[in-house]
Amino acid sequence: MYAFELHRPNSVKEAVALLANPDCRPLAGGQSLIAAMKLRLSAPAALVDLGAIAELRGIRREGDRLVIGALTHHADIAASDEVRQSIPALAWLAGEIGDLQVRNLGTLGGSLANNDPAACYPAAVLGLNATVRTDRRAIAADDFFKGMYETALEPGELITAVEFPVPDEAAYIKFVNPASRFALVGIFVGREKGGSVRVAATGCAGCAFRVTDLEKALEKDFSPDAAKAVRISPDGLSSDLHASASYRAHLIPVLAARAVAKSME
């Protein structure tokens, strides 16, 4: 590892001031950034370790919304009674990320800011119509994910929390890459109060996206059969050594049907 400066602020205000330097990068769980630095894919002059900022952690219910601090670990979300009672699908998703080390070090905010094409949390954020809070604004889920490893975050902007509306039903199903535990295809289905349905896919393209054809079908008939009847075009989907675009297109409605069935259990 090459030499770099390490800062450890105690507040969001202090961290944001340090991140005003374009050569600084925020360090949350480090599960992606440290690996990238070891491979020389990222070479920041300084890291701003967010680990000592208590205000970035925590899980609480605010009315019909679940608010989770950006620095909350995957393992804490998976084990939280509040999450299990409010949005069990989110607890299950968190418990299926990576392995024990990743779940105990990785964070919600770090995952969203990194925006890996196969990460699980982006599907939940889109599928639940969540809001990403930062040190300066609130960003709607539909506006946050811009492309491969690209988000709406501006230079120096820091995610502080995520607000998840509590749905009537929700479930997440993923077809797992057995080596990385990332989603080869992951589908999150959320049914909002009032019947509006959101379906989000991850692992299929440059970043997570909503599957509007499935949403329309499920708003008419919220059933596994309705999901399985939808045909998804492979155009624009990823092809790699793990799966072709056509195979991913086939999996999307299959997994959506399983997610609908699971949400109604």
Blueprint (SSEs and pairs):
Elements: E1 5-7, H1 12-19, E2 24-27, H2 33-38, E3 46-49, E4 59-62, E5 65-69, H3 74-79, H4 81-86, H5 88-95, H6 100-105, H7 108-114, H8 121-127, E6 131-134, E7 138-140, H9 141-144, E8 145-147, E9 150-151, E10 159-165, E11 169-176, E12 183-191, E13 197-202, E14 209-210, H10 212-220, H11 224-228, H12 245-263
Parallel strand pairs: 1-3, 2-3
Antiparallel strand pairs: 4-5, 5-10, 6-7, 6-10, 8-9, 11-12, 12-13, 13-14
Overview of this protein structure:
This protein is of the alpha+beta class and 265 residues long. Among the domains are: 5-49, Uridine Diphospho-n-acetylenolpyruvylglucosamine Reductase, domain 2 (2-Layer Sandwich); 167-265, 2-Layer Sandwich (Enolase-like, domain 1), CATH 3.30.390. The chain has twelve helices and 14 strands. The protein has a five-stranded antiparallel β-sheet with strand order 4-5-10-6-7. A hairpin with a 6-residue loop joins strand 11 (169-176) and strand 12 (183-191). The mean pLDDT is 95.
